[in-house]
Amino acid sequence: MKQIGTYIAICLALLAWAMPAQGEGLNYPLDTINGQVYYRYTVERSIGLYRISVNFGVTQEEILKANPQLQHRGLRMDEVILVPAKLKATEDEQVTKPEEVKEKKRQRLVLFEENKETKRKKPIIDNTPVDTLALDTLSVDTLAALDSTAIRLALLLPLHANAIKREKNMERFYDFYAGALIAIYEAQARGQHMEIFTYDIGKTATRTKEVLSQHPEIHTMHAIIGPAYAQQTTTVLDSIQEDSIWCLIPFLSHLDKKNPYTRTLKFNPSEQIAADTLARYLAQRKDSVNCILIEQKEGEVIPSGIMALHKALQQHEVPTTTIALKAILNDSIDSAFRNDIENIVIFNTERYANLQTVMPHLLKACGNYRITLFSHYSWQNEKIILPQLYTSVFSPAPMVPDSYEQLFEQYFNHELSSTQPRYDLLGYDLTAHLLAMLQQTNDTTPLTNESWNGIQANIHYIQTTPQSGYENHNIHIIHQ
To answer: Is this prediction's pTM over 0.90?
Structure first.
């Protein structure tokens, strides 16, 4: 995002590719139509409008002008389109063009200054359809006037689009972005008007501040999706305090409450909500369960989520017994375990690797007792033989519609970073719900507490106090 007002949406399947030279050495058939020379280019799988424009050294607007059919239905694989062939610029053009660009940017800054007295400044942005799901990079200097009926949505994500090599843990954000774009595509197909902005904000608060300062149009959004990290989220919420913008936070379970912002939508429930939900579930079964709390080693710090569960079990009067880890390792569990009901073992750890030495002893005890391991969603890729109990915001076996899978294969078709959960489905569910909410909720109406059933995640936002934001309270209890 180096130009003020740059409108970016990056086709995920193309992010890993190296940037080719622009417009030179291209070996495609040429045609001359009305004095203009065009390349005849056959669209390849997973190629977006942005990548074509970069490869040929032209703007997306020029391609759309030469191929007006793309305005309505987007690119199709194996379709032949016309791409203007750029002649080498004259010396005069090379000298004057940067000055013209600077003047246009200066005029845009003047426009923002003139609109300072209004609550919401109106930038000049693109209203090109998102049918191709390849919104890519467009300069606002050449774009059409703002559609006042459109929902303006900004995605602030750590895409690292310019990175030579992507980190493995970054893949989930590309998956998330792909699903979000499919939700946007479907909403547009239903007639919803939208202006979509995507900002690559990296991982730091410093980079986030840079983007916010360089792009005043962010303050004109109806909603923001992101950021992904805590410090970045605090920076964004501080910046939009006066703007009445909804901010959907997809990945964090904890927010800094020093500066509350009532228009947050936090998908991941807090540890306390998860603990209370599980404790209420077990309280309804108190006659048939016995919770075994493993006493921590001396000096060991119990994770806050486990501490919250311990307290919730006590408050809801769920039967519990505490024993030392040494007792399990010595197979001395008869005093704590019961053979007539289910024994739910709760360790003071959130890392499955910490249980490697303990698991053989629990498996041995299964000959005499019914044992269930209190697990964590992150353990689902481990080979755990014991029955498990855990909470999850995700459905255990989502039924993905064929229509969604076909769109994903058509536009992205890349290997997913994870199957539990699928981050593309998370992006789809959260974005689809947000767009539906924005259609129904105006600036003066509080968000209703209606539930939303997605493909992988069901959502039920609740505002616990008038000063707080909204938090998802929909949690699945997985008891198997």
So the answer is: no
